[in-house]
Amino acid sequence: EEMDKVSAQGNALKVSRILLKDGKPLAEGEPLKVGDKLDVCLVIKADRDMDFVQVKDERAACLEPADVLSGYRWTDGIGYYQETKDASTSFFLERLRKGTYSLEYEVYVTSAGRYTQGVPTVRSVYAPEFGGHATGGSLFVK
Predict the structure, then answer these.
(1) 82 φ, ψ to 5°?
(2) In 3-state terms, the chain is what percent helix, strand and coil (to 5)?
(3) pTM to 2 decimals?
(4) Would you give the DSSP letter of residue 36?
(5) Contact 133, 6 (CB under 8 A)
């Protein structure tokens, strides 16, 4: 299926992506400009305690991360290793307690056009039946 037509699914773990521009959620179809700074917020919901959880967010081709160095981070009460690659950003969480958590990173818009965003996914490494993914989407850059 085309990435912008994928619907959300989840079993025990759910993820959703919110793009923020100037601290406000980006509306569907809202045009962007080259040079805009966006905050990508991945909201993870776990209905039970889990160990070794991986979250992967596939970026649109027009987005470049502000922080390209991989490393260990501590945010929102959880510790994780953040890995930045050419087309995605991955988060590796050793322990994820029941609840709702937010992982964020910054990106810049680098080129004009219409782009399809990848699908963010979350899964338990040792129990892959527990996992899910969010919806795809598209971006329009003037």
Answers:
(1) -105, 125
(2) 0, 60, 35
(3) 0.92
(4) -
(5) yes
